User: What shape does this take?
Amino acid sequence: MDKETELRLGIKSMLSQYDHYFTRAPHTRYWLVVVDNHFENCYSFFIYTQRFKAKLVKSYEIACFKRDKSLYKHYLSSVKQHSNLNIEYRDTRHLICPDKYIQKDPIHGHGAIPTSAT
Amino acid sequence: MTTPLDDPTRLPVHDIMCIDCKSFYASVEAIRRGIHPLAADIAVLSKGDSPGGLVLAASPNCKKRYHVGLSTRRFQLRDDMQVELAEPRMADYIRKNYGINRIYRQFTDDAHWYPYSIDESFIDVTHSHNLFGSNEEIATQIQKKVFDQFGIITTVGIGQNPLLAKLALDNEAKKSTPWQATWTYDRVPETIWKLDDLADFWSIGSRTAKKLNAIGIHNLYDLAHADRALLHQRFGVIGDAMYFHAWGIDYSDLTRRYLPRSENKGYGNSQVLMRDYTQPREIEVVLSEIADQVAGRLRHHQVQGEVISVGIGYADAEEAGNSGFGAQMKIDPTNRTDDLIRAARFLFHSKWNGHAVRNVSVRVNRISQASTMQLSLFESAEKEEANVLLDQTIDKIRQLYGYKAIVRGYSKENGATAIDRAGLVGGHHG
Assistant: This one.
């Protein structure tokens, strides 16, 4: 399989996974998380869901591909075209510690915290 | 009074490490999401869409705050719990386990390396000190390498034998930083004997603990000072082993592996059901599917078995008075699906008392090479041969196109699980 076809199929699979989990259920919040994972040398895209007033969160991986900037741009632009959900960016070189640093909103609005600080 | 520790020359003295990946599955998922494993609130939930879905692992925070851990069910998770639910990816955990074990193997030779489970391994570093330093230095290097490469926190129990290393891990190293602990014979009174609950001790389960209580042994100190002859009389060689374990003595050697004798080898599969099964037909269906799975494995390895056993675990163990039953019978050597199904169903009906069922297992023992076939007096040779060919053809189709390409009719009935489970790794999402 050539690279272009692989990319096309990868994006198609990601969007179909997105549609599968983004059911627009009432009273439910959805958002996306993109992780630059240097441990596994990959990028991962997750969709998160949370019911209104609930603290319980569910997350599903919708795409995972090689850590390649050009691939990443394609995947990201495709998901942005397809979705208006908020996107949170994370990087495994700066693992986040929601509990320690974010008191009010463990999910949104925080920056990356250096691992050594833990 | 003489004690087993009086003569140090008779004690096994090695430098053994028991290394565990802290909340392994949950840590892998936390890293995957860019969260520090110790700060994450992640629970890995298998079959999360079903109320019977099972938590396979949870981050330390979830365990501490909500007592969510291994075997918590989906319906026990409340909306007000600050927990992130993640699907398991078993194939990835297995891959990571290989990678992490590669790091352990840098510190000793393969003969002194023993993988104990998917997240726990023993290594003997007695002869590695010239190259890598003291026990603590080796443990620290391993912890750093694993964290740098995988982001996983490892905890290390160090002891003079595998038992001490394991106990140091379970009872001290896992509890706080630096995630290391060393237990030695000198420290037995202040470590092993201080364990309150007998059942907390490796190799003693709740049933054995009850039996020990009945003869006046309530803690490890009592066990160490019990009459060894009495223990031997009650428990046989296990009694002797428990006595020495209570003194921290374990003669097992990592280089001498336990290899099951061929006559003890068997093939079996089991399932924890997603709900209570109360209808006999539903239980029959699951038993048949598992028997089919076992038969397929026997044929794949070109062997056949002549003892079949089924295990049934009740959902309401306390109400039922016992936790379930096991039954076995001898059959003509076979690897045919139909033969195993027939025997499994017979065994089930011979002992089932109507209680709701939650665990089911089928096992075939006394294995031999499938080079001969026992003809039946009640079936023509042609028909038997045709059935053998049918099984082989089904195996080939499944091998080429997957399990779901061809299934038996009962797999479409209520209670069947085989179609849903096809493609899972160890019964969980791959």
User: Anything to note?
Assistant: The beta strands of chain A are 28-37, 42-51, 57-66, 87-91. Residues 111-118 of chain A have pLDDT under 50 and may be disordered. The first strand of chain A starts at residue 28 and ends at 37. Chain A touches chain B through 31 residues (CB under 8 Å).
